[in-house]
Amino acid sequence: MSKRNVADLVEADLKGKKVLLRCDLNVPLDDAKSITDDTRIRASVPTIEYLTSNGARVFACSHLGRPKDGPDPALSLGPCAVRLGELLKKEVKLAPDCVGPEVAALVNASADGDVVLLENTRFHKEETKNDPDFCKAFAEPFDMFVNDAFGTAHRAHASTEGVTKHLSPSVAGFLLAKELEYLDGAVNNGTRPMAAIVGGSKVSSKITVLSALLEKCDKVIIGGGMVFTFLKAQGLSVGSSLVEDDYLETARAVIQKAESSGKQLILPSDIVVADKFAPDAETKIVKKSEIPDGWMGLDNGPEASKEIAEALADCKTVIWNGPMGVFEYDAFAKGTFAVVDVLEKITEGGACTIIGGGDSVAAVEKSGKAEKMSHISTGGGASLELLEGKVLPGVKALDEKVASPVKAAPSAGGVE
């Protein structure tokens, strides 16, 4: 996915230009409408600063939550405008809407270097419908488009895909470009040996990404609740552990696919089991073939963690999506944090480690070792779809990077 990004644009391309910038400012708010995690807002700052430092006038837009019937004061982007202004150390006005005459007036009155945040795009039902007339009106006041919202790039919405039909150039921001570089680059061009760690509760939610990664990777490690569907598919007793009986054949097909293709499929050899799903449950460690009736598996055992460490020791690229257990409870967090420790070690040794969204990101953040990884993805669903090999509508709509022409007779330095 060789797409143009803001780094391909210089001051001559940007000065005085009215830029529509799609950010992902869908941040959590408490009852007082205070932001409880500003990670996504901070992630937007580098692209905004690059645009404004080159004289652009930036009009950022985003959705927030799922408004049901038009504008909802509880889902206003007002708190995001305040926080963005604090991070940029300049005033960030909040527009009363994302489309219409009041927005056009703000755009026309802007000065080079200004930053304005447009109101929640989903206050208009036409946004998620990607309505053509709405897209045209949305894009009308602007000169160009930058998409820096990887988390919504898998949606063909007006603010991610539709406006590109009316704005040129349409390019990626730094955050989106980085996501594509790591996720798409790792899956298609990762240095071998390559491994994937796929965890989480259900086979049904991960089967497509699991199958895709099995084709690309040399080793696939399975963890989390989906383990027990695989163990039952092998004829083992799993007690009261989570099992998707409708996916037993699917699990057998995955096992067969790994065997026939010479890939290493790794399931935990021992399990932490509990007598109930609770933080104060009674626990014990058993072999995978000895899960007692009435007990449920909730984490990898210590031998499983050692085997994962051994399997990953020589890997140069590792993609992780999904925890090994119920890491929110301390009693069942050791398997997940053992993976974090291994990834930290191999990253220090030069491996590329990519944490692909969702609960695995939360686990790495909780461990305090997020900065030790090569890349932490900002998109849950978008990460999964990219790992599956799907084309993301918000990415497909952006301009292709044009290769520099090769001159016939370059002077002493080769190709320019």
From TrEMBL:
An example Gene Ontology biological process: gluconeogenesis
Family assignment from sequence similarity: Belongs to the phosphoglycerate kinase family.
Sequence positions that bind ATP: K206, E328, G357, G358, D359, S360
EC number per UniProt: 2.7.2.3
Residues that bind (2R)-3-phosphoglycerate: R40, R122, R155
Keyword Kinase: yes
Keyword Magnesium annotated: yes
Pathway: Carbohydrate degradation; glycolysis; pyruvate from D-glyceraldehyde 3-phosphate: step 2/5
Organism encoding this protein: Triparma strigata
Oligomeric and partner information: Monomer.
Entry binding sites for substrate: D24, L25, N26, H63, L64, G65, R66
GO CC, any one term: cytosol
GO molecular function: ADP binding; ATP binding; phosphoglycerate kinase activity
Protein name: Phosphoglycerate kinase
